[in-house]
Amino acid sequence: MSLISVRDLVVGFDAPAGEVRAVRSVSFDLAPGERMALVGESGCGKTTTMLAMMGLLPAGAHVSGQVLLDGVDILAGGEASMRRHRWTDVAMVFQGAMNALNPVRRVGSQIVEAVRIHGGSRRAGRDRTRELFELVGLAPELAQRFPHELSGGQRQRAVIALALACEPRVLLADEPTTALDVIVQHQIVQLLRNLSESLGLAVVLVTHDLALVPQLCDRAAVMYAGSIVENASCRDLVGSPAHPYARRLVEATPDLAGRRRLASIPGVPPRLDQPLFGCPFQPRCAEAVDRCATEAPSLLDLDPDRSCACHLVGVVV
Ligand SMILES: Nc1ncnc2c1ncn2[C@@H]1O[C@H](COP(=O)(O)OP(=O)(O)OP(=O)(O)O)[C@@H](O)[C@H]1O
Questions:
Q1: What is the value of pTM for the model shown?
Q2: Where is the ABC transporter domain (predicted)?
Q3: Cα–Cα dist 241/173, whole Å
């Protein structure tokens, strides 16, 4: 059985011009220790999906669908149920988290506090901090430092340690390497991989940088305008992307495109506060046919390991 399954997740936000439908029926499953990426351009609904899984959407958000943990829908029980599972079962490293540590408190004390909030003693918090620092590759004495006394990479390790304080089974990592140089990026990705392997931690990596994905993940779901348009193993997605948008993403990623000519993706994603007709990628798709403008494609299985939402895939691509 899956550890965590997202089923038909829909999220809308009230906005002056009408409801912003940020997530449109997203579904995926994650087994213990599995690592999946959620990839796509800015604004396609990646962060909103993660916040919904944490029960941390802002007021005014409408959510439907299910988040099944061990087969039980944790969304259905409202905030009380989310509070039981947040941090202890599902934890998140937020976008820009390196700046999210409390600047006036020593790093170690922030982890002690997290353990205490969840019922542990101060002593247990200190022991856990030592354990976590070792786990994320930080020298124990760094626990006494303030966040500004750490390097960017050390801060991100501390943020990951904080997220792991209550031994979650699922870690949602939202752009965890943004603002880090390439070498440190690689180290953080390596750390997440080691943690996943040694702890059996399931990881969702949210990123717009497809080049990072094969370094960490087994599979990737490509999101466009609030929907998953392709879900495949990293090897298939990078080696032979099926959806035209996924192909453009691969071509637009220097490290993956190799010596291939780099192509940018012309046009912009559709507004999410307007009704969408047909395939949302159709206005930007060089291969679109008449049907694409009027009929929304469903996400269909191409084989047991890959699904894709495109009228052309499996026909003439
Ligand atoms: N609180 C909110 N109120 C209204 N609209 C919102 C709110 N939060 C997000 N949105 C909109 O929802 C859509 C999806 O945003 P989201 O942040 O999930 O995308 P993303 O793929 O994570 O992008 P990024 O990589 O830039 O974070 C965007 O159009 C965004 O403007």
A1: 0.94
A2: 4-250
A3: 24
